[in-house]
Design a protein that fits this description.
single chain; mainly alpha; two-stranded antiparallel sheet; 13 strands; 49% helix; 11% strand
């Protein structure tokens, strides 16, 4: 007979401790620094509005409607991919804590606390893959063994599969599951900036009459539409960063590296990169593949709150509680012992 209260079953997001923001009762997951995401949207939206208000009508008057249509398509793709990047789970591996339990039966098992130094109990494990020895580090914060290429993001407080970086412009992690959308976002943003810069210059210098002074014609055009020059300068300045960022990530894609690995210089000349495929096309296919099946985070999954159960206490627990105050890390030790590190095994095939 189960001895539990009616509120023992809860959604995972209600008990999950994370730096990310959860919206709409677990239906939406956003980054930990949403003010940066809003700031990026403002930097994109302001020139977009100016282009629609001032440049689009001027181009239509010159019978250049196709240029406006192309801008609308590029602009929509930018907003679509930045939204998907922020809202999609980057590949978070949930923490193992005593705040919840996936299996109700495990809660009813009496627990004996371990009196072992956690540094000895959770040594780094080694894994051999493609002739390379990988050290599976134990994350003390998440209480899991991190798979290869996974890393803990201090801003979001999560371990992320194939962690690339925590983007300071969108305030969210970029990992295995949303990297393709991040790459497409900076690609279309770069294309949009180059396109706006070129169309603005074509508007200013494109319809010159040979029998008139070119300087006076340029002044007249700028007097009618000074925003064209402002947009050209704006896109010229910011395109250095955006296009450069896209070029850098293109290099990472064709070499099958992450930003984290590049900055920390993981793959030195002697060992090289074991994840690099035989040619750049296979690297592109592997890195930019849409990964939907590799998912550990289910925000609306039902879990069980151990505090709602009257778990029997063993004599060992009574004796140990009388002798010493147990360190809170023991709770995580019990959960790790009860839950095998299945995440690592599930991720090996994906690598």
């Amino acid at each position: 007979m189960h001895n539990y209260q009616d509120n023992s079953q809860k959604f995972f997001y209600e008990l999950w401790q994370t730096g990310n923001r959860i919206l709409c009762q677990g239906k939406l997951l956003v980054g930990s620094e949403n003010h940066k995401f809003i700031a990026s949207l403002v930097l994109i939206t302001i020139p977009t509005i100016l282009y629609y208000v001032f440049m689009a009508p001027a181009l239509v008057q010159r019978d250049q409607v196709i240029q406006v249509i192309i801008f609308i398509i590029l602009n929509c793709l930018v907003y679509v991919f930045i939204t998907i990047t922020v809202l999609m789970d980057p590949g978070i591996i949930p923490k193992i804590t005593t705040n919840y339990e996936m299996d109700e039966q495990l809660i009813l098992i009496p627990q004996k606390y371990l009196k072992v130094d956690p540094q000895v109990l959770f040594e780094s494990k080694t894994l051999q893959m493609r002739g390379h020895q990988f050290k599976l580090k134990f994350c003390n914060t998440c209480a899991i063994y991190r798979p290869p290429r996974a890393s803990h993001c201090p801003a979001c407080d999560n371990c992320v599969l194939r962690f690339d970086h925590h983007c300071p412009w969108i305030g969210a992690c970029v990992g295995r599951r949303n990297y393709i959308y991040f790459y497409l976002f900076i690609f279309f943003l770069s294309a949009t900036m180059i396109y706006v810069f070129s169309t603005c210059l074509a508007y200013i210098f494109g319809n010159m009459e040979n029998d008139k002074d070119k300087g006076e014609q340029i002044i007249q055009i700028l007097q009618r539409n000074p925003i064209s020059l402002a947009l050209a300068i704006y896109c010229f300045i910011f395109s250095f960063f955006v296009v450069g960022l896209w070029g850098f990530h293109t290099f990472l894609v064709i070499t099958n590296m992450t930003t984290n690995e590049y900055l920390k210089k993981h793959w030195i000349i002697q060992s090289k990169n074991p994840f690099r495929r035989k040619n750049i096309f296979k690297n592109i296919q592997h890195v930019l593949a849409c990964i939907r099946e590799v998912k550990f985070l289910e925000l609306r999954q039902y879990v069980y709150d151990p505090k709602s159960y009257n778990q029997p206490i063993t004599q060992n627990q009574i004796n140990e509680n009388e002798n010493e105050n147990l360190n809170p890390v023991c709770d995580n030790q019990n959960n790790v012992a009860r839950r095998s590190s299945k995440q690592t095994d599930d991720h090996m095939e994906e690598q």
